Amino acid sequence: MSESWTEIKITVPSEKADLAGDIANMTVPHGIYIEDYSDLEEKAMEIAHIDLIDEELLAKDRTKAIVHVYISPEDNPAEAVSFLQERLGSCGVEYSIDRESCAMDDWLNNWKKYFKPIPVGNKLMIRPVWEEDFDSMGRAVLNLEPGLAFGTGTHETTRLCMELIEEYLPAGADFLDVGCGSGILSVAALLLGADSAVGVDIDPLAVKTAVENARLNGVEDRFTGICGNLADKVSGKYQVIAANIVADIVIELSRSMPEFLASDGVYIISGIIDTREQDVLDALEGRFTVIERRTERGWIAMALKLKKE
Length: 309
Hints:
This protein is α/β, with parallel strands linked by helices. It is built from eleven helices and 14 strands.
């Protein structure tokens, strides 16, 4: 495959177009395109002031919307697809993803040459396993084989989350990673001094990748990967919990998260696009206090503590 952009098309029910668009926006920094014909006649009259519409447009399925995402050559389309599948599934959105024009092997081979070791925060260096020649700069090296799971550390949401983990993780903490993807946050926490980490994800491929990344970093004995929903599969209290997930899931988790967070613990949330920040803050009201907020290119991450009675 030449070094060309990859188009991913996500088909969803038209009433879920905005939610799917919010999720898709997390995968790229440059915008998306949504095809939605559910109100074709109304829009034609409103915008063009005509009621004569092309027959081909009239024949479009009004019950479905198509979200178009364009992935640049230096990014990993397989990771984007995995992220979309996980987040759309978590939000209960029926979907299909068209990737017929993209060969999986080409994706995996083409993007890797752009993924180089990168420093994150003050203490970590993320190193893809195929990169042998690099300078650790005196940092703890996190060896990563992303596979097809979300989480390479190159996306703003992941980096912001890791920076907050570095700042708020106490030595010897028990760490919980909700929607663990590649396991990058769990491995980072263990390298930064956590005693144990639990990663939970609804995608079995993500959990398998997370377990493998824990093994690559020699922390497999302190990592537990769990496939399933948080409330059904996880128990106990954690000093630090991280959730790098879309706003709707953060809002949903805000109701149940206090039962998993230690009284003096820190809950780190990321993956929130700036247009949804107030929705998230409204959901957190009365349960959590924001102790730090970070932002990069329109993405928001926050560190929270339980509100005192």
